[in-house]
Structure formats: C-alpha cells, structure tokens
Amino acid sequence: MGTYARQYxxxxxxxxxxxNLDEVIVTGTxxxxxxxIFPVPVSVVQRGMIEQSEEINxxxxxxxxxxxxxxxxxxxxxxxxxxxxxxxxxxxxxxxxSGRVLILIDGHPQYATIxxxxxxxxxxxxxxxxxxxxxxxxxxxxxxxAMGGAINIITREAQEKGNHMSVRLxxxxxxxxxxxxxxxxxxxKLSAVLSGNYDKTDGHRKNIxxxxxxxxxxxxxxxxxxxxxxxxxxxxxxxxxxxxxxxxPLLDATADVxxxxxxLSFENNYGRTNGAMNFYYNWGNHKINDGHTPGAxxxxxxFRSTDYMGGVNIYQSVHPFTGNxxxxxxxxxxxxxxxYRNPETEKFVDHIKLNEVAGYLFVQQKIGPCMAxxxxxxxxxxxxxxxxxxxxxxxxxxxxxTHLKFSVSKGFRAPNMRELYxxxxxxxxxxxxRSMSYDFTVSQGLLENHMTTELTFYYITGDNIITPIQVDGxxxxxNVGDFTNKGIEFTLKYNIINDLQLHGNYSYLxxxxxxxxxxxxxxxAGLTYKAGRxxxxxxxxxxxxxxxxxEKEDVQTDNFTLVDARVSxxxxxxxxxxMKGDNLLAQKYQxxxxxxxxxxxxxxxxxxxxx
Length: 611
Known about the structure:
Structural class: mainly beta
Largest sheet: 22 strands, antiparallel, barrel
Low-confidence stretches: 1-19
Number of strands: 32
Strand content: over 45%
Helix content: under 10%
Distance between the termini: 28 Å
Radius of gyration: 23 Å
Number of helices: 4
C-alpha cells in the first residue's frame, strides 16, 4: 500500500525479528513512522520469523508471536469454512469470525463480505514480507470491522538486484506434503515477484483431509524518483473436509473455496509530501456440503455463495514544518454477493450491493521528547448513514530507551449481509456495533538495547453489539449487547550473544462475557541458536483457560503446553536440510470443542536457494 514498498526493515538478529524498538511501521498511520513514538501498540513479525516456521499458511506464525492473538485449529493444516471450521481469529477477546478483527493485505480489507469474516486459508506465508498487528480499535484509517485491531499483511517485493529463486519441499506426518517456490527479479526500475504453494494432508482423523494451492504475483516499476506503480494478484483454492465432532461425526461435509485479491497502486514521494492512490478488488466463490450423520440422507443441494469487494483509497501526507505530519484520505468501498442452496426456493442473499464512503484527517506533531496525534473519520454507509470515528494518542520519551505511550480510539463494525438478510433471525434495521479502546504502553531497552521489553495495559468497552433475542415469539438480530474486556500484553526480545536470541510474549485477558476461542492466559518463549552451518529453534507455548464453549449454561475450557523444535543444516550455501517437530510432549488438547488436535507430528525437507 503506497509507501510500504520503500520502508521494509530488514531482519537484524538471527534472521528472525528486529530487536530494535526504533523500527519503522506503517499500520495505523499509512505513512512511515518510528514504532517507538507511535502511541498505539503494534506488533511486528518480520520475514525471517515467517521463514523459520516452515508454514504455508501465515496464521500459525502470528498465533505464536503476537500477544493477545489466538487462532483456533482442528488439524495439522487447513482451516475450512462453514460449520466446524477452524481459523477463528481472536484478538483481545474480539472475534474475527464475527468481523471484529480486520485482515488487510497492503492496507486493503480482506474478508468474505456476505459473512463479514476473514477466510484463514487464503493468507499465505510466502507472500508476506512482514506483518504488522495493530492492537485496539483501528477504524480511524480502516473503517468497519477493526473494532479489536487490524492485521496488515505487507506483501513481498524484490529487494536485491538480479534473479533469486527459492524452492522448499517438505513431507511428514499423516501424509502431509508442502511445496513452495518463489522467484524474485529486480533490474533497473523494474521489480517482480512470483510464488506458488501447495499444501496437502490426509489428516489425523478420518474425513479430515485438506489440500490447497495458491499463487501470487507482484510487478513494480519506478517511473522516476518521485513516482512508481505496483500491481499484484493473489489466488488461493482450498478443498477441506469437516469430520464433525468426536461424538457427532459427519460424512461428506466438504468445502470448496476460491479466494482472490488484486491491487494496483500509484505512489508518489516528493520529500515534504507523499501519498498514493490504491485500487483493489477481492472475490470469492464457495461450494459447501454441510454433510450428514452416518445413516442419514445426503444433502439434496450444496450451499453456494459468491462475494466481491472493490474500492479505492487515496491519501496524501504533507510535512508543513519540522515534526509535523498531516495526512488526509478518502475511501470508497463497494461490496456484495449472493448465497443460495436451492436456486429456486432458498435464495438467502440475491445479488445484494452495498457501499461505504469515508474521509479522514490525521495529524501528528513531534515536540522534543513527545509525539501527539489526533484524527477523525467520517464514514457514510448506504444503509445506516454517518459514523464519526475519533482517535487521540500521546507518546513520551522519558529516557533514551524508555517510552511511555497512551491512546484512545473508537472502533465500529457494520452489520454484515448474513445478519441483515439471511435466515429467520435477519434484521434489515441493524446499526453498527461500537467500541472504545484505551491503551497505556511502556517500552524499555536494556543492556545497551540487547534486550527490549514492552508492556501494555488495555481496557475495551463495546455496545450496540448485534445479538439474537426473542422478538414476537422468534429469534431476531438486535443491537442490544455490550461487553468489557481488559488485560495485559508483554513482549521480550533478548540478543544474549550474536548467535543466541530469546524472544517471548505473554498476554492476560479478562472478559466480562467470555467467547469461545479466547484464552485467559497465553505465553510463548522461543530460543534461536546458530553455530556455523547448524541452527536450532526451540519454542514453548502455554495456554491456560481457553474457552471452548462459553455459554452461560455450558462453560468448557482447556489448558495445555505445546513444545516445538526445528533443526537445520546448511550443506552448501545454496541448500539446507531441516526437520521440525510440533507438540513434542504429545499433549492431548483441543482449541474447538469436540475437535481433538494431533499429538506429536514431524516434518522434514529441503530448502534450495538459487542466485
């Protein structure tokens, strides 16, 4: 998105994450700003950490390395959609499945518009240069669905001159196979990246197989020192099976999902002013068989849906005087779709078209050790009219390596098409949900900045929440709910010696109204060691009081500890052999009620880099 391409921060330690608090971020500002002075807490996962995971999908990497973020799973790979689907994204107790956490690719919103939630199988690790996760409401810049935060996937570009190709081949437990190829090219003013991925498993249970392929292409050209254009396209196609719960197995429960994204950006940078005009278009096509219990009749019709989202965002920043940045922007979003089972009698959504138009102004001012920002957004929706969204923040450099930050931000979520139009509980008169996020953060560098820590206290309130209630003898969606979430997020990164690094995070979450898929305590610690051609990565994740079922009449939680390890050996400069093991303690656990996860699994493979 705009100036992203020129602002990547390279990995500086152990090819994993940047241990400098002063790294540059763009999420939450649209223009580059030092992370240590930006008032809103932002987690950054760099390319090195993504590569070390050996994952095809991006979600498992983020779940480990971002405090407060949890993602549900049901197998060794793949998430699926519809009933029994995993990939539920929860940040600070707000669910992406309900559309309250926004996924972005290069700043463009990404979700299935009919249901208002992201599709986890569509986010591919090899496409990401880095991921920035904004904690707390981010609606000031991104509008609807960012009540709990925004996960911005910044796509890869060719960083070095010439042609560079990498190939990764993996195989392991339960017939799992993973293949990945990426080629990058840069010469003069032209740059290009192409990638392809394939992921397949038979699964650890009967009827839980999964396979997918994904492709990505990005092309950029610099017309001059001030102007450049980039275009990219992502396509992912996944076939998944839902085996049902252990107590209620299913047959023929399948999902065929195609997701695509395309974008075109024109960027300008004149020093005192910079900005971009970005066009995007996303689409989806889903064919779902809800399956049947053994002995029952198969479904007569498949559930089918198509959806799309297109739009443009234009922004420009100016620096009128020292320390000051003023950013103004304009967004237009058009979306719609259709859904049916029997095309004659069961049309749930019939080519519905909606639109949102917004403008915003964001001002940042640095005075000595302080950075203050304030912004306002006015969003107009075809159905509910205007929504004002304010945000204010302040950061203070109390000492050379000590920063104090405070922010207050409003978030909102527009009702999705399912809530408005589908099934008996639909209500066309729904209004947006709203939230307020309060964050206080202390960042501290220690031991000559070999160790960095960050501690955030947050408090979130929400109202107008859409909840089904009894109206005139039947259930109907209404704006009657509210919630209060509060908690702590902590990260630590320690460069013990040049070849030994420790990184970890911890989060505590208290919800007055618990939801499934959100743990009370979540902690992760990882150790990376390199000695010549040999490298070792060890990790441990502790989950305490994960809500599997959070209904008043039935509360079920789980606790578990997961230990993983990865070893690799560089035979030549261009070839590595590696092996990884997950759940090495063979823990019995589940992140979704009735869907036990596999015990210990192993993967091995080879990575080839051609220059």
